[in-house]
Design goal:
Helices cover 68% and strands 0% of the residues. The chain is mainly α.
Length: 133
């Protein structure tokens, strides 16, 4: 779904007086990692409540082209699936994306850091059980 489509959805739901939290939950449920964050939805909703009619982004001078596209997210995900020990720098070299974009995709869209944190907690819990025994 394009940004313009997301904005249109937010505009319609805002016109129906649906809360931004509900809009966010609906988008996350359907589009998972592609959905906008709550703060973005709140900002867009406020613009529409204040009278903005356009759903497309206004051009801003000096604004970089976004690199967090569905294709780039999938490309990074495939590299991680092929080699989970690949470094951010290696992925950056292979994809020609910026270091920050690769980090953002890994942390926001692949769930790798969350999985690692869960694994770490499980390992610590297992060690505590071993010490107790």
């Amino acid at each position: 779904m394009t940004t313009e489509n997301f904005h249109f959805y937010i505009k319609v739901r805002t016109a129906l007086d649906i809360s931004t939290e509900v809009i966010h939950d609906e988008l996350k449920l359907v589009y998972s990692y592609e959905a906008s964050g709550l703060s973005t939805i709140e900002r867009c909703s406020k613009l529409f409540r204040d009278g903005r009619e356009e759903t497309e982004d206004k051009p801003r001078p000096g604004r970089p082209i976004t690199e967090t596209t569905t294709e780039n997210i999938e490309q990074v995900r495939l590299f991680i699936d092929d080699n989970p020990y690949m470094t951010t720098e290696d992925i950056q070299k292979q994809t020609h994306l910026s270091y920050g974009t690769v980090q953002r995709i890994i942390s926001d869209h692949t769930g790798c850091l969350k999985s690692f944190a869960t694994l770490f907690i499980l390992l610590i819990s297992g060690l505590e059980e071993m010490v107790i025994l």
